[in-house]
Amino acid sequence: MAGVWILAEHHNQVLELLGVGRDLATKQGTRLTALIWDDRERVQEYIDCGADEVLLLAPPASGQPPEAYVPVIVAEALTQDPDIFLIEATLRGKDMAARIAARLNTGLCSECGGLTLDEKEDRLVMERLIYGGAAVQTLVCSTRPQMATIPPRAFAPAQPQGTRQGQVRELPPPPPAAVRVIERKPKTRGTVSVAEAKVLVCVGRGIEKQEDLELARELAGVIGGELCCTRPIAEELHWLPEETYIGLSGLKVKPDLYIGVGISGQIQHMTGIRDARVICAINRDENAPIFEASDYGIVGDLYDVLPRLTGELKQALKK
Ligand SMILES: Cc1cc2nc3c(=O)[nH]c(=O)nc-3n(C[C@H](O)[C@H](O)[C@H](O)COP(=O)(O)OP(=O)(O)OC[C@H]3O[C@@H](n4cnc5c(N)ncnc54)[C@H](O)[C@@H]3O)c2cc1C
Question: What is the 3-state secondary structure (H, E, C) of the chain?
Answer without folding.
Answer: CCCEEEECCCHHHHHHHHHHHHHHHHHHCCCEEEEECCCHHHHHHHHHCCCCEEEECCCCCCCCCHHHHHHHHHHHHHHHCCCEEEEECCHHHHHHHHHHHHHCCCCEECCCCEEEEECCCCEEEEEEEEHHHCEEEEECCCCCCEEEEECCCCCCCCCCCCCCCCEEEECCCCCCCCCCCCCCCCCCCCHHHHHHCCEEEEECCCCCCHHHHHHHHHHHHHCCCEEEECHHHHHHCCCCCHHHEECCCCECCCCCEEEEECCCCCHHHHHHHCCCCEEEEEECCCCCHHHHHCCEEEECCHHHHHHHHHHHHHHHHHC
